[in-house]
């Protein structure tokens, strides 16, 4: 007998002080990176979108992954990625 789970989460991150720092030329690269992080965790990404001051992720999380673990991994790895690539002038 097998088990079926389907819980879909909408995760929203905002920038510090809701400053509009996401520029058009860097958005696509950031989306691809975060998509890769989610896929590497065996989660199914339905939708991801970046607006000037926040980002939305709609995903199904694999049963072996906790929501807090996924959010932590996305935030930590994307923060490191943004700082290494110097995407934003204030970094």
* CATH domain class: Alpha Beta
Counting helices, strands and paired strands, the structural category is: alpha+beta
Strands, count? 3
The CATH topology comes to: Alpha-Beta Plaits
Mean pLDDT: 89
Question: Which CATH architecture?
Answer: 2-Layer Sandwich
Oligomer: single chain
How many domain regions? 1
Helix content: 25-40%
Taken as a percent bin, the fraction of beta residues is: 15-25%
Q: Which homologous superfamily in CATH is the superfamily?
A: Transposase IS200-like
Main sheet: strands, sense, barrel: 3 strands, antiparallel
- Walk across the major sheet and give the strand order: 1-3-2
Query: Spans with pLDDT under 50 lasting ≥5 residues?
Result: none
Give the termini distance in whole angstroms.
Answer: 51 Å
Supply the number of helical segments. 2
Rg over CA atoms? 14 Å
Structural summary, described in words:
The protein is an alpha+beta fold. It has a single domain (8-84), classed as Transposase IS200-like (Alpha-Beta Plaits, 2-Layer Sandwich), CATH 3.30.70.1290. It has two helices and three strands. The protein has helices at residues 24-40, 67-85; strands at residues 8-14, 44-50, 54-60. Strands 1-3-2 form a three-stranded antiparallel β-sheet, covered by helices on one side. Helix 1 (24-40) packs across helix 2 (67-85). The mean pLDDT is 89.
